[in-house]
Amino acid sequence: DADVTQTPRNRITKTGKRIMLECSQTKGHDRMYWYRQDPGLGLQLIYYSFDVKDINKGEISDGYSVSRQAQAKFSLSLESAIPNQTALYFCATSDFRGGTDTQYFGPGTRLTVL
Amino acid sequence: LAKTTQPISMDSYEGQEVNITCSHNNIATNDYITWYQQFPSQGPRFIIQGYKTKVTNEVASLFIPADRKSSTLSLPRVSLSDTAVYYCLVGDQAGTALIFGKGTTLSVSS
C-alpha cells in the first residue's frame, strides 16, 4: 500500500551494528505496528503504538526498541544487530473505528545481519 | 484475544472453490473475525471481515455459524494468483493488538 512506506527496503549489516528501520504513513491512522516475518513463518508482533504517547511491547520485543516521532512516523531500532534478527520486517497502520480494526501494511524491509 | 487454529496448508486446482476453516472456540460475544491474504515478500492485505452469518464481497465470502466457534473463508473458482498465505484473526471491542499466527498456505495448481 503506497500510503505506508518503509525505508530502507533492503539492508545488509554486520553483527553488533545499530540499525534503524523507518516507517511513514499518510493514512492519518493513530495506530502503528512493527512485525517480523521469518522464512516460511507467520508474522510476529514486535512493538505497537496506539497513539504518539503510547508504546507497547508485542510478542518478541527483546533486542528491539521503537520511537513514535509523530502520528505519521514509527521507527524500529536494533541496538546491536545479531544474525538471528535476519528477517523481513513489516510496518502496518490501522484505525480502530466502529469496533473493528483493519491493518494496512507497508512493502517490507528485508534485513540481513552477517 | 481468542486463539485461532487453522490448517497449515491446503492444495487446490484452478477453477475449484476453496474453503479454509478457522477455529476460534473462545470467541467473545462482540469479537469480530477478519481474514488477510499475503503473497510472498509482500505485506498482508485485508480480504473480508464479519461478526456473524455470511458476508460477501467481490473477492470472497465469509461464513460464520450461529455458535461463532469457527468461520470459513470461501474463495470461488481459484486461480494460480490465489496462491498465498491466508490468516484468520479475531479482534475484540477493546481494540487489542491483533496476533497473526502462521496462517494457511494455499497452493493452487493448473
The SSE string of chain A, one letter per element, is EEEEEEEEEEE
Describe the biggest sheet of chain A? 7 strands, mixed
* Strands of chain B, count: 9
**Oligomerization category of the chains in this entry:** heterodimer
Q: How much helicity do the residues of chain B have? A: under 10%
Low-confidence stretches of chain B: none
Question: Uncertain regions of chain A: pLDDT < 50 for 5+ in a row?
Answer: none
Q: Cα distance, first to last residue of chain A?
A: 30 Å
Could you tell me the number of beta strands of chain A? 11
How much is the average pLDDT of chain A?
93
- Shape field of chain B: globular
Portion of residues within helices of chain A: under 10%
| Rg measurement of chain B, Å | 13 Å
Note the run of SSEs of chain B as H and E: EEEEEEEEE
In spatial order, strands of the major sheet of chain B run 1-9-8-3-4
Q: Note the overall shape of chain A.
A: globular
**Secondary-structure content class of chain B:** mainly beta
Give the CA-CA distance, first to last residue of chain B. 38 Å
Pair of chains with the largest interface and how many residues each contributes: A-B, 29 and 23 residues
Helical run tally of chain B: 0
Proportion of strand residues of chain A: over 45%
